[in-house]
Amino acid sequence: MKRSLCAVALLGVLASPWAQAQTACAAADGGRLLASGCFQCHGTDGKSGAFDALAGDGQLDMLNKLNEMRSKGVEGNIMYPHARGYTSAQLACITLYFSKLPKP
User: What CATH number corresponds to the domain at position 6?
Assistant: First the structure.
């Protein structure tokens, strides 16, 4: 009985960041307007830009990468100022938008 309770508790802890990220966007357009700042480098479809394709990537993975970029502050990394320019809720909207696009 103890093991099953621990397993359920662990599952809840592991799933909560994913669930939170999935529901964190309150933007009526699903984050498209916020994501438009990414279009020049990553393409409007998230796959035809000069840099990494983002379309269809996991939202939590993208969100974790952006948060890491925000915290590291690597000089010369173009993503550092971009990631810092948004709130956590805005980044959740951006990553939700790209995660829902079809993968290349």
Answer: 1.10.760.10
